[in-house]
Every structure is written in C-alpha cells, then in structure tokens.
C-alpha cells in the first residue's frame, strides 16, 4: 500500500451525474465574458503576475479523438487563443495505462514498465489497472520535480497514489474513484492553486469519451454529451485561471491518451490458438494483447516455447493480426520488457480481441450491447490519434505544432517549468510559439 497517507486528500464518493444545462451555459457565459481581457493581453508581454513561478496543469481526456472535441466551445477557444495539434500519436500499445505513464515519465512503456492495462510480471505476478506507483520502473515527474523542490498535485492519474519506489510522489493526491465528476476535480485544482505553497505541476485524468466509445462506438450522441459536460468543467477551470490572473504564469495542457475505432468483428484469440493446438494465456484485449506460452525455465521448456511462439505467430497472421515474439517488434514498438510476455499481438483496426472469459466485453454485454469501440491498434493508425491543446504561459494564440507524440509531453512539461530533460527521455518539447514552430520545422504545420 502506498505510503505517505498524510498526503491523501479525502474525497467523498458521489454518484456521477450530468451537470444541469443551466450550469453548462453559466460556465460558457462566464468564460466568454472573460475573453476580451484575454485577447487584449495576448499581444503584450507578460504582466507582473508572470513573476509567479511557472506552473503546468496537465489534463487528460481518456479515449478522446480530435474530431470529438472539434465543435466544443472550450476547445474552439483553446484552438483560437492557444495551441492545437493535428493529433497526438500514442506510444505502443495505444492503451490508457501505458500512455498515461508515458505522459509523466517521457519514456516508452517498455522502459517505464506499465506495458498494458493488465500484464504479468514474471516476479511480481499480475498487474491489473493498478494505481500503486511501485509498479513504475521509471521515475515519474512528481518525483523528479519534488527532488528539484517543485511540489506537484494529482487528481486521479496512473501511478500517482503515493511515493514512487524510493523516490517521491505528488504532495497532494486523491485515491481513484471513477464516480467523481469532472466539475469536482476542476474545483479542487483551483483550490490547490490557491494554497500558500501551491503545486506547480498538476495532473488530472478525466473519463473523456472512452467508456461511451467502448460501449457504443466512436462519435455517438452519448459521447458528445459526456464530452460537453467535461468541456463545461474545463471552461470553468480556464475561466478560474483567467479570473485569478494565473494564465500569465500557468500553462494548461489538455491531452488524450488514444483515440477509438469502431469494432466490426471480435475474435477470441485464446480460443483460436487452442483450436490450432497452442495452449496460451492471452492478457488484454481490444486492439492489443500479450500472450504467455508456458512458464518453465528449463532448456526443454524454452525449446517448446520457441516452437509455440512460431506456431502462435502463424496462427495470428492467418487471423489477420500482426504478431511478434517479444523483443522482435519494430524499433518504434520496443518490447524487451519481460512484462510483454512471449508474444505481442496487434489487431487490425476494426477487429477487437476478446478473451475467453469475455472480460473486456463484459461491461457492454451487461447492458445488452456488443463491444462497439476499441483501441490498442497500431499507434500510427489515424483512428488511434489523441488530442493536444495548450493555453497560457509560453503559448502563442493560433500556434499549430502539427502532429505531436505522447513521448513529447513530459519534455514539454519540463521545458515549461525550466527544468532539464533527463537523457532517458527521447521526446522533445513541443513548440508552442509560432516562431519556434517555424524555426524548428521550417513550416507551420510539419508532418511528423
Ligand atoms: Zn479504453
């Protein structure tokens, strides 16, 4: 169990309920009313408030595609008054836990160790949607920044619930509870920022369009409604930052971890392998799974396993999947970490892997629905693209950094906070100013 319980901010559980429309309109109006001030100050040099130390707020909307937010009022304003990327390329695999940990470590899942939402560690056993930071094999920003004297806070983020191994954790954090509405999280962030010793790096996960996307597929009225509520909550946060004069010292980054693709067919990979004479344990599902083929360490077991891997790759290929023995993936998809199992399998967009126990499909099935949306497919697929927006300190209105990568987010946070980038981070800070975009790429809208 995580140490440092004195840092826990108790959060009374409450049912998730939609914000009444009047509230949404009130936030939208409040934000709109503040716009003239923002426009007037955008052209001038930072005000005296810029003397406040730089602060970064990183918000993630799970499973949200660029098209999902294009028409939302707050996101339209973020694009006008700040930076908007064409899309964000997730790391491999394009799943929630691996990408959220990459956002706060700046390294591939192969290196930070959260290789999927669920996996088996040869020594420690099964990991499944766990927020315990001791599973992380690379130091998260909360710890790195704390060592530099910069306090952090986190409202629901993978690996933020306490201290990282022998390192540190966020000064303030909240135990995960899926029922907490976005509005309450935004209120708490503003409260944190009003403290005498405020956090200067804040992370916060929002449900985005992920749950509705899995249940009903991408681009449904249900997803739109879920996102409209979160847009209103974010608008209130932006208005709060603006009203307190904090946008001169604070940068708001809004990202998502991956997109969502419509499911046309589902396949039980474990069953298919079994039918082909390969006894395997498939972990994960949707667009990506790891496969375990026996666990013995002897010479004979190793030889049998190699043969099983070859046969499993053949079977997976016959089913239209991409499949690689661990460590033999393309360089962009490193899988040396033993937590990847013996084999990794990537389903083509449109196909979702379900396990024999129907674990992935179960929540949807309980509602009498199929599994209609999935991710985990190859990160470069357009359907897997996430979002990236930035507003506030260090961001030019109308900046268009093109396509950005999940690996670039942590270097961007460090650059905004004036902190050095550790050598292990291979990404680079995302240019958020028009001149920087021109000088680093030679064009305003580079293809990356
Ligand atoms: Zn998901």
Write structural notes for this entry.
This protein is α/β, with parallel strands linked by helices and 448 residues long. The protein has 2 domains: 6-11 and 26-260 and 382-441, 3-Layer(aba) Sandwich (Alkaline Phosphatase, subunit A), CATH 3.40.720.10; 266-369, Gyrase A, domain 2, CATH 3.30.1360. It has helices at residues 21-42, 66-69, 73-81, 96-105, 109-112, 141-147, 182-193, 210-216, 221-243, 269-275, 299-318, 362-366, 409-416, 434-441, and strands at 55-61, 83-84, 87-89, 118-121, 125-128, 152-155, 172-174, 201-206, 250-255, 261-262, 265-268, 281-285, 288-292, 322-325, 343-346, 351-354, 373-374, 388-392, 403-405. It is globular. The two termini are 41 Å apart. The relative contact order is 0.19. Mean pLDDT is 87; it is low at 1-50, 358-368 and 444-448. It binds zinc ion. Zinc ion binds at residues 63, 96, 210, 214, 375.
């Amino acid at each position: 169990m995580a140490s440092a319980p004195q840092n826990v901010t108790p959060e009374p559980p409450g049912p998730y309920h939609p914000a009444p429309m009047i509230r949404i309109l009130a936030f939208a109006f409040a934000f709109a009313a503040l716009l003239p001030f923002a426009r007037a100050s955008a052209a001038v040099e930072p005000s005296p408030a810029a003397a406040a130390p730089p602060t970064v707020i990183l918000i993630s909307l799970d499973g949200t595609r660029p098209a999902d937010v294009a028409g939302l009022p707050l996101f339209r304003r973020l694009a006008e008054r700040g930076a908007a990327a064409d899309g964000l390329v997730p790391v491999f695999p394009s799943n929630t836990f691996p990408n959220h940990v990459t956002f706060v470590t700046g390294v591939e899942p192969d290196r930070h160790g959260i290789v999927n939402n669920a996996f088996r560690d040869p020594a420690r056993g099964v990991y499944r949607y766990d927020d315990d930071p001791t599973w992380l094999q690379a130091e998260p920003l909360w710890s790195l920044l704390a060592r530099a004297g910069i306090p952090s806070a986190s409202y629901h983020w993978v690996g933020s619930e306490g201290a990282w191994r022998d390192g540190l954790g966020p000064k303030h954090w909240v135990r995960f509870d899926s029922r907490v509405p976005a509005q309450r999280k935004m209120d708490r962030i503003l409260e944190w920022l009003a403290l005498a010793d405020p956090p200067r790096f804040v992370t916060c996960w929002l449900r985005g369009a992920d749950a509705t996307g899995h249940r009903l597929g991408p681009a449904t009225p249900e997803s739109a409604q879920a996102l409209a509520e979160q847009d209103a909550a974010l608008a209130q946060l932006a208005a709060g930052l603006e009203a307190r004069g904090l946008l001169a010292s604070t940068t708001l980054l809004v990202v998502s971890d991956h997109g969502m693709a419509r499911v046309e067919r589902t396949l039980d990979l474990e069953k298919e392998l079994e039918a082909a004479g390969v006894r395997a344990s498939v972990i994960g599902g949707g667009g990506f799974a790891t496969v375990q083929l026996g666990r013995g360490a002897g010479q004979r077991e190793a030889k049998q396993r190699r043969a099983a891997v070859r046969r499993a790759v053949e079977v997976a290929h016959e089913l239209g999947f991409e499949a690689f023995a661990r460590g033999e993936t393309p360089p962009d998809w490193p899988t040396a970490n033993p937590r990847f199992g013996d084999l990794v399998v990537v389903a083509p967009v449109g196909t979702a892997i379900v396990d024999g126990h129907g674990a992935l499909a179960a929540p949807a099935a309980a509602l009498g629905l199929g599994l209609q949306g999935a991710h985990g497919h190859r990160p470069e697929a357009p359907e897997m693209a996430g979002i990236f927006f930035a507003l506030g300190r260090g961001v030019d209105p109308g900046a268009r950094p093109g396509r950005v990568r999940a690996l670039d987010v942590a270097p961007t946070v460090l650059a905004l906070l004036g902190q050095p980038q550790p050598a292990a981070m291979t990404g680079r800070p995302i240019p958020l100013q028009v001149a920087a975009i021109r000088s680093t790429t030679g064009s305003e809208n580079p293809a990356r």
